TrEMBL record:
GO terms for cellular component: plasma membrane. It comes from Agrobacterium tomkonis CFBP 6623. The lineage of its organism: Bacteria, Pseudomonadati, Pseudomonadota, Alphaproteobacteria, Hyphomicrobiales. Residues 725-757 are annotated as: Disordered. InterPro entries: 4Fe4S_Fe-S-bd, FMN-bd, NosR, NosR_regulator. Residues 1-31 form the signal peptide. SUPFAM superfamilies: 4Fe-4S ferredoxins (SSF54862). This is Regulatory protein NosR. It is found in: Cell membrane. The chain crosses the membrane at residues 441-462, 474-500, 512-532, 578-595, 616-636. The gene is nosR. Residues 656-686 form the 4Fe-4S ferredoxin-type domain. It comes from the Bacteria.
Length: 757
């Protein structure tokens, strides 16, 4: 059982000094720039074609008219003045947006940010280009609910940054439009309309039809594309790399034959699913809920593999009235065949139940959008959308005309609340991000539960070193491959600096929640610091640490000689990482962006986030550190890691001591100290928790009665006691105690001969 430990005065003093320094320097935070300040970085023509000058700012928050000659082309505003735009760095991302009087965004420019992934690693132009879907988009329709918000293109490695940028531009534009300050209130007025005929599904029609009949009358809609047609479309769209990577060498080969039909319509459902299949569907559907059947054949899969990793079918989207929804694995049922007579054999058949949270009317026109993706590089993809429109044939509907409602006075834009959300669900961006990463969040929680079980049952596991060795190696592979290379959940000293900066300049939970796995891991690290210190993260959850240990294990297997530094030199190299961290911390109080630049001493971004797909100096630096780790296990962790130093400081306040020691440890026994993989055990026997990675090798020795001298003595005494207390068998003498010297028994002829020799 762990026991409470006394908090070292030295560790407490260091931590209190850290807090005092933090809040003493808090006053050095700089105020954010204003719209007028940022307009100095923008040319009018960057926001509106042929615009030549800016006017004077008006209103609060300020907007600035942009002139084309003597005419007002539109207005410029700062996104962060109207909505939260806090990015991954914990600082606002400032974008100057140009919007005309009709509510159409005509241009934008990123003028200031502190995003580390953009500052170093991913070109800023690539991130800004992801916002192109917002340009020339009529956001007045989004403000009135006629269209859904435009979706930005995701940039791998900068997902949070791009989502925040796109979300802040759209939200700020909608808020400005609803305020009525653009000078054109037509888009915000609510006009009284005459009652329109209402379509209702005619459930009385139950006739079963064959495949060709359903195709002929429009009950089933089809989209047929060849490989050559798709390649030509990519070429015309200015994406030649995608055009040169076809799915098949013959351009006449079918790319996809896509079919879609609403099977919640009784006659269509009976025909395509059969009586039994349609009956199961009806039992599953709630009143008013709909379902569609999607089937395809050819070289391209409409399902893709995204739903396997993240639970979302990212290649198809259902669209209606400007709103859209992507199906999830819980909405999906795989079918093996279509019941209609004459139906072809199709490679993929899927039944999708439309969630009742999505306002879908099967009697109104809708579209299924197919997103065609082609890989153009190691991390790049080109996309091309194709829309398959569907209108339910008149034979399946009945039309009713309701009575006219009383006419209400029209509302003006000025009377509409400016803070009304533009999306129907009215959820913050971070909630959507968590929903998108639901599967990854579940896997991460499961991994943390497994690690917690390992720690709580460590005494049982270390008594079985072979089993424990396989468990540890397996967990390191999980940390490297899944947490690191797949999920990009590599914690960094940048996170620490950002958190400190947020405490100084204004703390917002939205920012920290926008990266679900990073948030979960930091919560786990915080809990781990109270129980075990820095070891759980550094020794188990750090992907780069796992990469070092696994590569060193391969080196040992290949008989690569291991270097053990003299204790005096090793101990004097420990402070290097603390000096690096304190330097970065002090630099962050002056300029967080500058500190993030120097934080490149961490090879995490190169080796884990970008998977070595980076400029050669960064790759050489990361490979050099890994090469050093082949000879000195976890070389970077021992001497250079500023994140390890940052965690070691509060780690001194841990509440329990879980690593057990014998009185003989260090005097005279030195076995644990000599075998510790990172030399975190002093020659005197105590474990330096600031350096311990909690690999538990010392605990294996602690329990081993063939390697630990203390346990060897315990075993020998036990064996001697058993031997002396066990009655001898008949005809046999009691075993005699034999005293040896230098491996030879004393007092026997063999021993005498050995001494004479």
């Amino acid at each position: 059982m762990p026991k409470n430990t006394h908090i070292g005065k030295q560790g407490l003093a260091v931590f209190l000094s850290f807090l005092i320094a933090l809040f003493t320097l808090a006053g050095h935070a700089f105020a954010a720039g204003s719209l007028v300040d940022y307009l100095a970085k923008v040319q009018p023509a960057e926001l509106f074609a042929a615009a030549d000058r800016f006017g004077e700012p008006v209103g609060e928050p300020a907007i600035v008219p942009v002139y084309k000659g003597s005419d007002i082309a539109g207005y410029a505003y700062l996104n962060s003045d109207f909505t939260n735009s806090t990015g991954y760095s914990g600082k606002p991302i400032h974008i100057v947006v140009g919007i005309d009087r009709a509510g159409v965004v005509r241009g934008l420019k990123l003028v200031d940010h502190k995003e580390p992934i953009v500052l170093i690693g991913i070109p800023e132009t690539r991130v800004v280009a992801a916002l192109n879907s917002v340009i020339d988009r009529d956001l007045a329709k989004v403000a009135t609910g006629a269209e859904r918000p435009p979706q930005v293109d995701i940039v791998s490695g900068a997902t949070v940054t791009v989502l925040v940028m796109g979300d802040s531009v759209v939200r700020s534009a909608v808020k400005l439009i609803r305020s009525g300050r653009l000078g054109d209130g037509t888009h915000a007025a609510v006009a009284a309309v005459s009652p329109q005929p209402v379509k209702k599904l005619d459930v009385s029609k139950q006739e079963v039809s064959d495949w060709q009949t359903l195709l002929g009358d429009g009950s089933i809609r089809a989209l047929r594309l060849s490989v050559g047609e798709v390649s030509d479309a990519f070429a015309k769209a200015g994406q030649p790399d995608a055009a040169r990577t076809p799915e098949a060498s013959n351009p006449q080969d079918p790319f996809i034959d896509l079919y879609v039909a609403p099977v919640s319509v009784p006659a269509i459902g009976h025909s395509l699913l059969g009586e039994e299949g349609y009956g199961r569907l009806i039992k599953r559907l709630k009143p008013g809920q709909s379902a569609i059947l999607v089937a395809g054949d050819g070289a391209y899969s409409f399902k893709g593999s995204g739903y396997v990793r993240g639970g979302i079918f990212d290649r198809i989207e259902l669209l209606q009235d400007g709103q859209g929804i992507r199906f999830r694995d819980r909405d999906h049922t795989r079918l093996t065949q279509i019941a209609a007579e004459g139906a072809p054999h199709l490679r993929e058949i899927a039944l999708y139940v439309i969630p009742d949270s999505f306002a879908f009317d099967v009697t109104e026109p809708w579209e299924l959008q197919l997103l065609v993706q082609r890989t153009t590089g190691v991390r790049d993809k080109a996309t091309m959308p194709y829309d398959l429109g569907y209108t339910l044939p008149d034979g399946y509907v009945s039309i009713e005309t309701p009575a006219a409602p009383p006419v209400a006075p029209p509302a003006t834009a000025a009377t509409m609340p400016a803070d009304v959300p533009f999306d129907l669900e009215n959820v913050p961006l971070w909630v959507s991000i968590w929903e998108m990463n639901r599967v990854s969040v579940a896997i991460t929680f499961a991994g943390l539960l497994v690690l917690t079980a390992i720690f709580f049952f460590q005494d049982w596991l270390v008594k079985r070193p072979r089993l424990f060795g396989w468990i540890r190696r397996g967990y390191l592979v999980f940390a490297l491959v899944w947490l690191g290379w797949y999920a990009n959940a590599q914690l960094s000293v940048v996170n620490v600096l950002t958190f400190i900066n947020a405490l100084i300049s204004g703390f917002h939970w939205d920012f920290f929640l926008s990266a679900p796995l990073i948030f979960i891991l930091w919560a786990a690290v915080a809990a781990g610091l109270l129980f075990w210190g820095r070891g759980p993260f550094c020794g188990w959850l750090c992907p780069f640490g796992a990469l070092q240990e696994l590569t060193n294990g391969v080196a040992k297997w290949l008989k690569v000689p291991q270097v053990k530094l003299p204790w005096g030199l090793h101990e004097r190299l420990w402070p290097v990482k603390y000096i690096i961290f304190l330097g970065l911390f002090g630099l962050s109080l002056y300029s967080l962006a500058l500190a993030e630049t120097f934080a490149e001493i961490e090879p995490f971004k190169t080796a884990i986030i970008l998977k070595f797909a980076r400029e050669w100096p960064f790759v050489i630096f990361a490979l050099t550190l890994l090469a050093a780790g082949l000879f000195i296990e976890r070389f970077y962790c021992r001497y250079l890691c500023p994140l390890g130093a940052a965690l070691a400081i509060p780690g001194r306040l841990r509440m329990f001591e879980w690593l057990k020691r014998w009185p003989e440890c260090g005097s005279p026994c030195q076995r644990c100290a000599k075998e510790c993989p990172v030399q975190s055990i002093h020659p005197e026997g105590q474990i330096n928790v600031n350096e311990c990675i909690y690999c538990m090798h010392c605990q294996e020795l602690y329990q081993d009665d063939h390697r630990c001298p203390h346990m060897i003595q315990v075993r020998l005494k036990r064996e001697k006691f058993v031997a002396l207390s066990t009655p001898p068998e008949k005809g046999k003498e009691r075993p005699k105690t034999v005293v040896t010297h230098k491996g030879k028994p004393i007092g026997t002829d063999e021993g005498v001969a050995g001494e004479q020799a």
